[in-house]
Amino acid sequence: MEQATDEGRFAAALAAGPGVTLQRMESRPPGDLVVAWNEPLYPDQLRDLPDPPLCLFARGGPDGAAVRTRLAAIADAPLVSVVGTRSPSAYGEEMARRLAGDLARRGLAVVSGLALGIDAVAQAAALDAPAPSPAGLPRTVSVLGCGADVVYPRRNLRLYERVVRDGLILSEFAWGVSARAWRFPARNRVMAALGRAVVLVEGARRSGGRITVAHAADLGREVLCVPGEAGRRLSEAPNRLIAEGARVCESVDDVLAAIGVPSVRPGETGEDAPPSVSPSHGSAVRDVLEALQDAPATVDELARRCALSVAAAAATVSGLEIEGLARREDGGRYRLLRV
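^ that's the sequence the OP posted. Answer follows.
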């Protein structure tokens, strides 16, 4: 019954025409938002799916402006999904913690499912990382197999609250929808689509992480696996995938190399890793680069100079910062490094 009700509500929203979302049909807290697939804030990565969610229910930050900015920021940022078993070993926890923390310190957002085990360890590590996130980019993105306002599992309540404060909660299921086993494979495909890469940290041969990895491979995303000790049950999935051609992941540098992000820490501008502008960069990126060549600027100033929305300017300069092309300085101004 829940599924049919959800589909009916989605259809009603879309039938009303572009720009109409369920947010206009019901009153929600200020940090909640619903975005239909035909709206600009809908993440383009999800359009690669053969069955993209018709709507995304989002929660993050104190108000509507914050959640919109965070949604806009993930559109152009290199996200990395970190997944794995709900019952990790000490080694698995340490690797998830190290990888997610290092990704966050390099300015990349970590995507996971807020489940027990590897998900929770990775997302907590991303939130704990001392380096500030690039403009507007959430530290971590949780994709749920229930409504975005439902805390599941309840043991992760404090982590859920931290993600709401400093990250982003996403779900394709309507507000209040409870967790059910059949919803988690659907959730996994969204995690796979959002990330440029999926990193598997421990899992049995038939683990849920393998579902996420399979979706990632189908979508052309990079698949990396942390190798495990031979003969251990939790090493079965990653070791098998490595044997089948997945990349070995032993450090954050392996992830950065897989997705084409320079292996340079924030603030480093060494000659050995010069930033470059890809011909595939869009007009917004080129406009922001030209504006920064004139003088350092805040996000608001870039928005005015380039005729962009504040959210679009924030997302664009965030991407430049991640690629090592710009640096955020005191006072919130961004300075061009080198092109």
